[in-house]
């Protein structure tokens, strides 16, 4: 196990590991004790009761954070014709088809989100081995494979701060909520959007307790256990 630095140890000492913190208190504490000198990302980690070995219990989805992520999202779009023009008008940073595919095969990965029209997926599919491991492969379930008529909306949502979530091999979900510099209420509302989306994504085949625990942390900070009932009751007003 790697040794933690002094600033992390000081932060961890301020967290009562035996407590389950209310949402407001947890957000305030995470912002107060974050150990790094940069504007850390606030993250929500959810432990589920799902079994990742079963395909029907795999979940993947996305939601638009009402207050974004606090960073400029670089959006790449695979599209042609009118859809390509609509993507550019909506603010996409890179738009193309065969040319972009060749650039990515050549090592170009200077973007945060990749979106494709359905018509382009036959060509984009061969990028799976490059984009898949990096979480950049367009996917219908994450809202990044859309019809040409919806391309502008998808680009706008990605620019605003749409986050994707998926079950990892340990049955956990990890989602960024924004920056420690955000106002507390904005982080809380972003968390509410994530909770609503994760609740809505519950597989019909899920048995037992769907969400077992939730933890709030920052990029370099210690985990803060959340009061589960209060967390799961969060809703956007």
Structure report:
By secondary structure, this protein is an alpha/beta fold. It folds into two domains: 126 residues, Ribosomal protein L1/L10, rRNA-binding domain (Ribulose 1,5 Bisphosphate Carboxylase/Oxygenase), CATH 3.30.190.20; 85 residues, Ribosomal protein L1/L10, domain II (Rossmann fold, 3-Layer(aba) Sandwich). The protein is 32% helix and 21% strand. The chain is built from nine helices and ten strands. The strands form three sheets. It has a four-stranded antiparallel beta sheet. Helix 2 packs across helix 8 and helix 3 packs parallel to helix 7. The longest helix has 17 residues. It is globular and about 55 Å long. The protein starts with 5 loop residues before the first helix and ends in a 5-residue tail after the last helix. The mean pLDDT is 93.
